[in-house]
């Protein structure tokens, strides 16, 4: 049906808890799918989940900053499905979308699988983990607002736009750049109906500090440059991409991928 690709870096107990919950969630709610975990800097044991969870570790050459872009690109190398769900390690796409994704995609080659994002509080996240029942949470920014967090995309469309841009390091702007390339070059569908995406709680202080950093400024400048490109210049820029990561064979993690 489709593969689920999740990037991860263990930075606090909240993110580790969220990762394990979303792995179990997608294994349960999307029983025909494999889950691919791509980790950087840290090591997470996923062997208890069995053969449907594939684990790889990558090295981007940067010992400090996490690269979601490299994680998704590496996951696509491992996946053998024509359709993938790229999703954060704390985001929940609801079952009605996953169960009907082929019809919802229609002629679209990429689709945002939600039309509003529900941010769960710490208490609501604990309730979700303990009972698998999600509260309504707080709608972030209103409905029909485009965020990152999750995206269905066909393999050919992903590679036609060059995948994720690995020039983005650390947090911020890489999803917006990816969506801009989709809109410009292959199209991006928006789902209709009342379909939320649930975002699990984790501390946000580090993200606030990052907004003030030189790294975030560089990411924003790169995004502005990409948005200013003509279509032909964008294609030329994409063709200049070079991978920043290498795959690491982590033989102690359980269900590792041979590379």
What does this structure look like?
The protein is built from ten helices and twelve strands. With 259 residues, it is α/β, with parallel strands linked by helices. It has one domain (3-248): Spore Coat Polysaccharide Biosynthesis Protein SpsA, Chain A (Alpha-Beta Complex), CATH 3.90.550. Strands 10-6-9-4-1-2-3-12 form an eight-stranded mixed beta sheet, with helices on both faces. Helix 7 (174-185) runs parallel beside helix 9. The two termini are 24 Å apart.
Question: What are the salient characteristics of this protein?
Answer:
globular; Spore Coat Polysaccharide Biosynthesis Protein SpsA, Chain A; 4-stranded mixed β-sheet; 12 strands; 8-stranded mixed β-sheet; 259 residues; alpha/beta
Q: CATH architecture, please?
A: Alpha-Beta Complex
Q: Helical stretch count?
A: 10
CATH level 3 topology:
Spore Coat Polysaccharide Biosynthesis Protein SpsA, Chain A
Main-sheet strand order equals: 10-6-9-4-1-2-3-12
* Biggest sheet record: 8 strands, mixed
Instruction: Please report the distance between the alpha carbons of the first and last residues.
Output: 24 Å
Shape: globular
* Multimer state: single chain
Strand tally is 12
- The helical percent reads 25-40%
Within CATH, the superfamily carries the name: Spore Coat Polysaccharide Biosynthesis Protein SpsA, Chain A
Give the domain tally: 1
Mean pLDDT: 89
What percentage of amino acids are in beta strands?
15-25%
Reading off the top of the CATH hierarchy, the class is best stated as Alpha Beta
Which structural class do you get from the secondary structure elements? alpha/beta
Low-confidence stretches: none
Order of helices and strands: EHEEHEEHHEEHEEHHEEHHHE
Radius of gyration: 17 Å
């Amino acid at each position: 049906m489709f593969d689920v690709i999740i990037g991860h870096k263990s930075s606090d107990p909240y993110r580790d808890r969220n990762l394990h919950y979303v792995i179990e969630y997608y294994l349960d709610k999307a029983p025909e799918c494999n889950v691919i975990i791509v980790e950087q800097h840290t090591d997470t044991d996923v062997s208890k989940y069995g053969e449907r969870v594939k684990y790889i570790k990558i090295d981007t050459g940067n010992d400090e900053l996490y690269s979601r872009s490299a994680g998704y690109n590496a996951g696509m190398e491992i996946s053998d499905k024509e359709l993938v769900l790229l999703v954060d390690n704390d985001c929940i796409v609801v079952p009605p979308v996953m169960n009907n994704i082929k019809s919802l995609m229609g002629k679209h080659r990429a689709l945002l699988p939600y039309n509003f994002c529900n941010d769960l509080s710490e208490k609501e996240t604990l309730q979700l983990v303990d009972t698998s029942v999600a509260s309504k949470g707080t709608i972030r920014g209103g409905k029909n607002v485009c965020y990152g967090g999750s995206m269905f995309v066909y393999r050919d469309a992903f590679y036609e736009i060059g995948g994720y841009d690995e020039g983005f390091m650390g947090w911020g702007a890489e999803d917006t750049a990816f969506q801009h390339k989709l809109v410009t070059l292959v199209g991006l569908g928006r789902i209709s109906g009342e379909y939320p995406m649930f975002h699990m709680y984790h501390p946000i202080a580090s993200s606030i500090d990052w907004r003030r950093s030189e790294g975030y400024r560089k990411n924003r400048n790169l995004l502005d440059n990409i948005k200013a490109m003509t279509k032909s210049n964008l294609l030329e820029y994409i063709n200049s991409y070079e991978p920043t990561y290498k795959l690491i064979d982590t033989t102690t993690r359980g269900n590792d991928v041979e590379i």
